[in-house]
Protein backbone atom coordinates (compact mmCIF):
# COMPACT_ATOMS: atom_id res chain seq x y z
CA UNK A 1 0.00 0.00 0.00
CA UNK A 2 2.86 2.32 0.83
CA UNK A 3 4.51 1.62 -2.53
CA UNK A 4 1.27 2.25 -4.32
CA UNK A 5 0.84 5.60 -2.68
CA UNK A 6 4.43 6.64 -3.35
CA UNK A 7 4.28 5.70 -7.00
CA UNK A 8 0.96 7.44 -7.40
CA UNK A 9 2.59 10.62 -6.13
CA UNK A 10 5.51 10.18 -8.50
CA UNK A 11 3.10 9.49 -11.29
CA UNK A 12 1.10 12.63 -10.63
CA UNK A 13 4.30 14.63 -10.60
CA UNK A 14 5.51 13.19 -13.89
CA UNK A 15 2.19 13.68 -15.59
CA UNK A 16 2.20 17.30 -14.52
CA UNK A 17 5.74 17.75 -15.82
CA UNK A 18 4.85 16.11 -19.11
CA UNK A 19 1.90 18.38 -19.73
CA UNK A 20 -0.95 17.44 -22.02
CA UNK A 21 -0.39 15.27 -25.02
CA UNK A 22 -1.20 18.10 -27.44
CA UNK A 23 1.46 20.25 -25.87
CA UNK A 24 4.02 17.44 -26.12
CA UNK A 25 3.28 16.87 -29.78
CA UNK A 26 3.64 20.55 -30.41
CA UNK A 27 6.87 20.87 -28.45
CA UNK A 28 8.63 18.45 -30.77
CA UNK A 29 7.74 20.43 -33.87
CA UNK A 30 8.22 23.94 -32.57
CA UNK A 31 11.54 25.65 -32.06
CA UNK A 32 12.52 25.73 -28.37
CA UNK A 33 10.54 28.82 -27.54
CA UNK A 34 10.19 30.86 -24.39
CA UNK A 35 8.44 28.16 -22.40
CA UNK A 36 10.98 26.87 -19.89
CA UNK A 37 8.50 24.35 -18.45
CA UNK A 38 8.86 22.23 -21.56
CA UNK A 39 11.75 19.83 -22.03
CA UNK A 40 14.35 21.59 -24.14
CA UNK A 41 14.69 20.65 -27.80
CA UNK A 42 17.84 18.67 -27.05
CA UNK A 43 15.90 16.62 -24.51
CA UNK A 44 13.60 15.37 -27.24
CA UNK A 45 14.91 13.04 -29.91
CA UNK A 46 12.72 12.18 -32.85
CA UNK A 47 13.30 9.14 -34.98
CA UNK A 48 11.31 7.83 -37.94
CA UNK A 49 11.09 4.10 -38.46
CA UNK A 50 8.98 3.25 -41.50
CA UNK A 51 5.48 4.43 -40.70
CA UNK A 52 6.22 5.05 -37.06
CA UNK A 53 7.67 8.15 -35.44
CA UNK A 54 9.34 7.61 -32.10
CA UNK A 55 9.87 10.51 -29.74
CA UNK A 56 12.27 10.07 -26.84
CA UNK A 57 12.08 12.61 -24.05
CA UNK A 58 14.56 13.07 -21.20
CA UNK A 59 12.69 14.58 -18.26
CA UNK A 60 15.38 14.66 -15.57
CA UNK A 61 18.31 15.89 -17.65
CA UNK A 62 20.52 12.78 -17.30
CA UNK A 63 20.63 12.38 -21.10
CA UNK A 64 18.70 9.13 -20.85
CA UNK A 65 15.16 9.12 -22.25
CA UNK A 66 12.35 8.50 -19.75
CA UNK A 67 9.32 8.94 -21.97
CA UNK A 68 8.85 7.22 -25.31
CA UNK A 69 6.03 8.23 -27.60
CA UNK A 70 5.11 6.19 -30.64
CA UNK A 71 3.14 7.74 -33.46
CA UNK A 72 1.53 6.34 -36.56
CA UNK A 73 2.22 8.55 -39.56
CA UNK A 74 -0.92 9.46 -41.47
CA UNK A 75 -0.85 11.01 -44.98
CA UNK A 76 2.77 12.05 -44.70
CA UNK A 77 4.33 14.41 -47.20
CA UNK A 78 7.51 12.74 -48.51
CA UNK A 79 9.78 15.44 -47.13
CA UNK A 80 8.38 15.10 -43.62
CA UNK A 81 8.82 11.32 -43.58
CA UNK A 82 12.40 11.68 -44.75
CA UNK A 83 12.96 14.00 -41.82
CA UNK A 84 13.78 17.01 -44.00
CA UNK A 85 12.40 20.45 -43.27
CA UNK A 86 9.12 19.79 -41.53
CA UNK A 87 9.37 23.43 -40.58
CA UNK A 88 8.88 26.44 -42.82
CA UNK A 89 6.31 26.19 -45.55
CA UNK A 90 6.38 22.42 -45.77
CA UNK A 91 3.36 20.98 -44.04
CA UNK A 92 4.38 18.62 -41.28
CA UNK A 93 3.29 15.00 -41.44
CA UNK A 94 0.11 14.22 -39.60
CA UNK A 95 0.69 11.66 -36.93
CA UNK A 96 -1.44 9.90 -34.36
CA UNK A 97 -0.18 8.89 -30.93
CA UNK A 98 -0.51 5.14 -30.54
CA UNK A 99 1.55 4.40 -27.45
CA UNK A 100 3.30 6.22 -24.66
CA UNK A 101 5.83 4.52 -22.39
CA UNK A 102 7.09 6.15 -19.21
CA UNK A 103 9.88 5.46 -16.74
CA UNK A 104 8.65 7.43 -13.74
CA UNK A 105 11.42 6.50 -11.26
CA UNK A 106 14.27 6.97 -13.76
CA UNK A 107 15.72 3.43 -13.44
CA UNK A 108 15.62 2.87 -17.21
CA UNK A 109 12.72 0.46 -16.84
CA UNK A 110 9.29 1.34 -18.20
CA UNK A 111 6.62 1.61 -15.48
CA UNK A 112 3.61 2.94 -17.35
CA UNK A 113 2.41 2.11 -20.85
CA UNK A 114 -0.58 3.89 -22.33
CA UNK A 115 -2.27 2.75 -25.50
CA UNK A 116 -4.16 5.17 -27.72
CA UNK A 117 -6.55 4.92 -30.60
CA UNK A 118 -7.96 7.51 -33.00
CA UNK A 119 -6.97 9.93 -35.72
CA UNK A 120 -4.35 12.66 -35.27
CA UNK A 121 -5.37 15.18 -32.58
CA UNK A 122 -8.37 12.96 -31.72
CA UNK A 123 -6.43 10.25 -29.91
CA UNK A 124 -8.07 8.72 -26.84
CA UNK A 125 -6.47 6.42 -24.32
CA UNK A 126 -7.91 2.91 -24.50
CA UNK A 127 -5.70 1.13 -21.98
CA UNK A 128 -3.13 1.97 -19.33
CA UNK A 129 -0.77 -0.54 -17.73
CA UNK A 130 1.17 0.35 -14.59
CA UNK A 131 3.95 -1.30 -12.63
CA UNK A 132 3.20 0.19 -9.23
CA UNK A 133 6.03 -1.40 -7.22
CA UNK A 134 8.71 -1.01 -9.93
CA UNK A 135 9.57 -4.73 -10.17
CA UNK A 136 9.03 -4.87 -13.93
CA UNK A 137 5.63 -6.58 -13.68
CA UNK A 138 2.35 -4.89 -14.50
CA UNK A 139 0.11 -4.56 -11.41
CA UNK A 140 -2.72 -2.44 -12.72
CA UNK A 141 -4.46 -2.36 -16.09
CA UNK A 142 -7.12 0.25 -16.71
CA UNK A 143 -9.43 -0.14 -19.68
CA UNK A 144 -11.12 2.91 -21.17
CA UNK A 145 -14.01 3.55 -23.50
CA UNK A 146 -14.74 7.03 -24.84
CA UNK A 147 -12.45 8.50 -22.20
CA UNK A 148 -14.10 6.73 -19.27
CA UNK A 149 -12.62 3.86 -17.34
CA UNK A 150 -14.70 0.68 -17.71
CA UNK A 151 -12.56 -1.93 -15.99
CA UNK A 152 -9.58 -1.81 -13.64
CA UNK A 153 -7.63 -5.01 -13.15
CA UNK A 154 -5.33 -4.99 -10.12
CA UNK A 155 -2.70 -7.27 -8.68
CA UNK A 156 -2.92 -6.08 -5.08
CA UNK A 157 -0.92 -9.08 -3.86
CA UNK A 158 1.92 -8.11 -6.23
CA UNK A 159 2.48 -11.77 -7.15
CA UNK A 160 2.01 -11.29 -10.89
CA UNK A 161 -1.61 -12.44 -10.87
CA UNK A 162 -4.67 -10.25 -11.16
CA UNK A 163 -6.78 -10.53 -7.98
CA UNK A 164 -9.19 -7.61 -8.18
CA UNK A 165 -11.47 -6.57 -11.02
CA UNK A 166 -13.43 -3.33 -10.75
CA UNK A 167 -16.17 -2.58 -13.25
CA UNK A 168 -17.39 0.94 -13.90
CA UNK A 169 -20.42 2.26 -15.71
CA UNK A 170 -21.18 5.68 -17.08
CA UNK A 171 -24.53 6.76 -15.71
CA UNK A 172 -26.49 9.89 -14.85
CA UNK A 173 -26.05 11.27 -11.35
CA UNK A 174 -28.70 12.81 -9.10
CA UNK A 175 -27.75 16.23 -10.44
CA UNK A 176 -28.41 15.08 -14.01
CA UNK A 177 -24.75 15.11 -14.93
CA UNK A 178 -22.91 12.08 -16.29
CA UNK A 179 -20.94 10.20 -13.65
CA UNK A 180 -18.72 7.17 -14.01
CA UNK A 181 -19.37 4.82 -11.09
CA UNK A 182 -18.03 1.61 -9.68
CA UNK A 183 -20.80 -1.00 -10.10
CA UNK A 184 -19.09 -4.27 -9.32
CA UNK A 185 -15.84 -5.48 -7.83
CA UNK A 186 -14.67 -9.06 -7.97
CA UNK A 187 -11.94 -10.40 -5.72
CA UNK A 188 -9.79 -13.46 -5.67
CA UNK A 189 -9.04 -13.51 -1.95
CA UNK A 190 -7.19 -16.81 -1.71
CA UNK A 191 -5.02 -16.14 -4.74
CA UNK A 192 -5.89 -19.26 -6.73
CA UNK A 193 -6.84 -17.28 -9.82
CA UNK A 194 -10.61 -17.65 -9.46
CA UNK A 195 -13.00 -15.09 -8.01
CA UNK A 196 -14.32 -15.72 -4.48
CA UNK A 197 -16.13 -12.51 -3.63
CA UNK A 198 -18.43 -10.34 -5.73
CA UNK A 199 -19.24 -6.86 -4.45
CA UNK A 200 -22.15 -4.97 -5.97
CA UNK A 201 -22.39 -1.21 -5.79
CA UNK A 202 -25.40 1.05 -6.15
CA UNK A 203 -24.82 4.78 -6.59
CA UNK A 204 -21.19 4.17 -5.71
CA UNK A 205 -21.94 2.41 -2.40
CA UNK A 206 -21.54 -1.24 -1.54
CA UNK A 207 -25.00 -2.79 -1.30
CA UNK A 208 -24.59 -6.53 -1.80
CA UNK A 209 -21.85 -9.13 -1.44
CA UNK A 210 -21.91 -12.48 -3.22
CA UNK A 211 -19.80 -15.52 -2.41
CA UNK A 212 -19.17 -18.79 -4.18
CA UNK A 213 -19.84 -21.59 -1.70
CA UNK A 214 -19.90 -24.54 -4.14
CA UNK A 215 -16.77 -23.53 -6.09
CA UNK A 216 -18.41 -23.37 -9.51
CA UNK A 217 -17.03 -19.90 -10.25
CA UNK A 218 -20.29 -18.01 -9.82
CA UNK A 219 -21.78 -16.39 -6.71
CA UNK A 220 -24.55 -18.35 -5.02
CA UNK A 221 -24.91 -16.76 -1.61
CA UNK A 222 -25.67 -13.07 -1.21
CA UNK A 223 -25.63 -10.69 1.73
CA UNK A 224 -27.14 -7.24 1.66
CA UNK A 225 -25.06 -4.52 3.27
CA UNK A 226 -25.35 -0.87 4.18
CA UNK A 227 -29.15 -0.69 4.34
CA UNK A 228 -29.58 2.65 6.03
CA UNK A 229 -33.04 3.64 4.92
CA1 LIG B 1 16.34 10.81 -18.02
CA1 LIG C 1 11.13 2.63 -13.94
CA1 LIG D 1 4.93 -4.72 -10.30
CA1 LIG E 1 -9.98 -17.63 -5.43
Q: Could you characterize what this model shows?
A:
- This protein is mainly β.
- The protein folds into two domains: about 1-25 and about 40-150; about 165-229, no CATH class.
- The chain is about 15% helix and about 40% strand.
- The protein is built from three helices and 13 strands.
- It has helices spanning about 1-20, 20-30, 80, and strands at about 45-50, 50-55, 65-75, 95-100, 110-115, 125-130, 140-145, 150-155, 165-170, 180-185, 195-200, 205-210, 220-225.
- A 13-stranded antiparallel β-sheet has the order 1-2-3-4-5-6-7-8-9-10-11-12-13, with no helix packed on it.
- The longest helix has 17 residues, at about 1-20.
- Bound molecules: calcium ion (4 copies).
- One calcium ion (CA) binds near residues 59, 66 and 106.
Furnish the topology, listing elements before pairings.
Layout: H1 2-18, H2 21-29, E1 44-49, E2 52-57, E3 67-74, H3 78-81, E4 94-102, E5 112-117, E6 124-130, E7 140-145, E8 148-154, E9 164-172, E10 178-187, E11 197-202, E12 205-211, E13 221-224
Antiparallel strand pairs: 1-2, 2-3, 3-4, 4-5, 5-6, 6-7, 7-8, 8-9, 9-10, 10-11, 11-12, 12-13
Bound molecules: calcium ion (4 copies).
Residues 103, 105, 107, 109, 111, 134 line the site of one calcium ion.
Determine the fraction of residues in helical runs and give it as a percent range.
Answer: 10-25%
Strand numbers in spatial order across the main sheet: 1-2-3-4-5-6-7-8-9-10-11-12-13
How many domains make up the coordinates?
A: 2
- The beta-strand count equals 13
Structural class: mainly beta
Shape: elongated
Overall average residue pLDDT: 82
In terms of per-residue confidence, which ranges show pLDDT below 50 for 5 or more consecutive residues? 1-35, 84-90
Distance between the termini: 34 Å
Strand content bin: 35-45%
Spell out the helices and strands N to C: HHEEEHEEEEEEEEEE
Q: For the CA atoms, what is the radius of gyration?
A: 22 Å
What profile does the largest beta sheet have? 13 strands, antiparallel
Amino acid sequence: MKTTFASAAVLACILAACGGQAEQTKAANDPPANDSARPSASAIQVETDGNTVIERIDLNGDMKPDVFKFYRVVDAPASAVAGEGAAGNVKAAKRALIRKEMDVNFDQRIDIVQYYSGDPSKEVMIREEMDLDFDGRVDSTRHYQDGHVTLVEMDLGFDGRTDTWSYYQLTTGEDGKPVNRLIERRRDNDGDGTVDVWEYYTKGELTKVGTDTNADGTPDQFTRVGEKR
